Every structure is written in C-alpha cells, then in structure tokens.
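Give me the fold.
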Amino acid sequence: MAETFEQTMRIHLWADVHVPKWARQLVRQIDWLPAPAVEDAALVASELVSNAVGHAALAADVVELRFSRAAEGLLIEAGPAGMAIEPGRSRPSTTILADGVLGVAVVDGVANDWGIVDGSGWAALRF
C-alpha cells in the first residue's frame, strides 16, 4: 500500500464490549468507501478493535481507530490510544492462529495484508 494517503479519519472510542459494533457502524457511514468494500472494511475494523479492547485495559481506557485512504485501497489501524501502530510489521506466528484467535483468522481471510502485535493491529484492503 502506498505511503501517501488521500484522507485519514482518526476516532477515539472507550474500550468497551460494544466497540466492535460501534466500529462497524462507523465504517458504514464513511462516504468515500466504495460500496463493495464497506462490509469487508466493517468486519476488519470490528475484529481489530476487538483485539485492541482486549489489550486496552493494560494500557488505556481508550481505543484509537484510524482509516487512511490511498488511491488503491484502505488502511485500517486499531490499538490502545497513544500506542504506535506500524503497518508493515510481520504477522503473528501460526501458533497464535492455532490458539483460537478467530478474529485474526477473519482478518487474514479478508485483508490483503495485515499485522497484529502487542494489542495494536493494522490491515490493508485493496479496492
């Protein structure tokens, strides 16, 4: 994914069990997403914030969700607020996938590229 973004939206949400639902609702309101990409983006955002909420209690009570649009797609990032998210990092080991982390498997099935480390995650969707 290109490093130059045309548009970025940053949202802070309370770390709460309802955050994945709120993330899906927010994605569905982004008017610059192409219609075919909306449901995939909603699913990925939901799973990334769900992962972040699981780690937020250790770092903060707020989860940050970012959407960055580039010419060829969308970068979605989520993590405890204030935590650096670095797209391009390697993925977790297959052991993590085998340990029942369903959200990671969902992101892997939908995103073109992704990474999750220490409660922060990112995913690239091309459209």
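The chain has one domain: 7-126.
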